[in-house]
Amino acid sequence: MTDPAENDPAAPTSGLPGDEEPGAEPDIELEADLEADEDDVDSIIEPEAPAPSIPPGPRRLLIPEGEVIRRVDRFVADRTGLSRSYVQKLISDGRLVDDTGRRLRANSEVRSGAVTLEVPPAEIPYHLEPDPTIEIHVVYEDDDILIVDKPTGLVVHPSPGHWRGTLVNALLARGDHYGGIAGVARPGIVHRLDRDTSGLLIVARNDAAQAGVMAQLKARRVRKTYLALVQGSVAAAVGRIEAPIGRDPKDRKRMAVVTDGRPSVTGYRVRERFAGWTLLELDLITGRTHQIRVHLSALGHPVAGDVVYGTGTSRKGPDGLERLFLHAWRLELVSPTSARLVRVEAPLPASLEAVLEGLRATEASAGRRPGGG
């Protein structure tokens, strides 16, 4: 992969693991914010924040003259009476700005003027209905967790305007009990996958397991490995992408590599090479919204079939591809109660494997052999 401009702090960097400076602090988020998108890629689910206790709409909060606000999330929580976790959620959604309209982060320092918080209307409670028509493929199960192989096109949990047809509705139809600390709309859910991403997802069967897995995810002790077909020839056989990710300032429905984004790290290894395409194994070290797709697109190797972050040929993908070529292939975590290492793999769906077979056949007909790393 090519190196970005050295002077651009938002530009992605790619190198071999171990290239970090000696003594550098690890990239750890002490307070993981809950992203708002319903289809965040592997974003961590936090315990549910209390509903707002003030009317919806903008709230302008004056900074006392001469006072320095070290953390704006604490200041807003104190002034509004909202819980700090709920304020952090609103901030992560881009709902707190200063007088210039600049979006603030939870740990932003403010010295003068005012900040404005946009409080959304409270979500209307909705009864979740089990849906036995949605098939679930359980690949691992014990007393504490399920690991399911989610198909492409399935949203993980309900959200306003999308209360039916989700993985949660299918889980409820099993008749099991699930952890409830993430809220009534997310029983058992501890992390998410994009709607169009297939693969492995952890579901907690009780509160203790849900809290335990959430803690592992937040501490980055759960290893998540994906398979993705990307456009072009990725130069390095092994690499590490480090580039901050945040809301795209030009389109808030998208994410982008931005200077003031959250630290984001993706490791990769080349698994197989084809003419015009590369199959990668990717380690999701952080779990930002659409992280893999944003990182690879920023480096000029968008995921095949990605209509949001891809361009031209990559949006369509190779012959026979009818979906995003991104699959959560392997999960490793420690069982919450037995402390046993659990390692699970889900093979590529048949439709994606067929695309690879087509590429291999093309290579063979041209007298080439698909290359490895």
Structure notes:
By secondary structure, this protein is of the alpha+beta class. Among the domains are: 57-119, RNA-binding S4 domain (Structural Genomics Hypothetical 15.5 Kd Protein In mrcA-pckA Intergenic Region, Chain A, Roll); 224-328 and 350-365, Pseudouridine synthase, CATH 3.30.2350. 17% of the residues lie in helices and 25% in strands. It is built from seven helices and 15 strands. Strands 1, 5, 6, 7, 8, 9, 12, 13, 14 and 15 form a ten-stranded mixed sheet that branches. It has a three-stranded antiparallel sheet with strand order 2-4-3, covered by helices on one side. The protein is globular. 38% of the residues are buried. Residues 1-11 and 14-41 have low confidence and may be disordered.
Summarize this entry quickly.
With 373 residues, this protein is an alpha+beta fold.
What's the layout of helices and strands?
Blueprint: E1 13-15, E2 57-62, H1 72-80, H2 84-92, E3 96-98, E4 114-119, E5 138-141, E6 145-150, H3 167-172, E7 198-204, H4 207-218, E8 223-231, E9 238-242, E10 245-248, E11 251-257, E12 265-274, E13 277-284, H5 291-298, H6 313-316, E14 326-334, E15 341-345, H7 350-365
Helix pairs in contact: 1-2
Whole-number mean pLDDT: 84
Q: Kindly report the name of the CATH homologous superfamily of the domain at 224-328 and 350-365.
A: Pseudouridine synthase
Broad structural category: alpha+beta
Largest sheet: 10 strands, mixed
The number of helices is: 7
CATH level 1 class label of the domain at 224-328 and 350-365: Alpha Beta
Radius of gyration: 22 Å
Number of DSSP strands?
Answer: 15
Strand content: 15-25%
| Architecture per CATH nomenclature, i.e. the level-2 architecture of the domain at 224-328 and 350-365 | 2-Layer Sandwich
The CATH topology of the domain at 224-328 and 350-365 turns out to be: Pseudouridine synthase
Helix-residue proportion: 10-25%
Strand/helix succession: EEHHEEEEHEHEEEEEEHHEEH
Uncertain spans: 1-11, 14-41
Q: Could you say which overall geometry the principal axes of the C-alpha atoms support?
A: globular
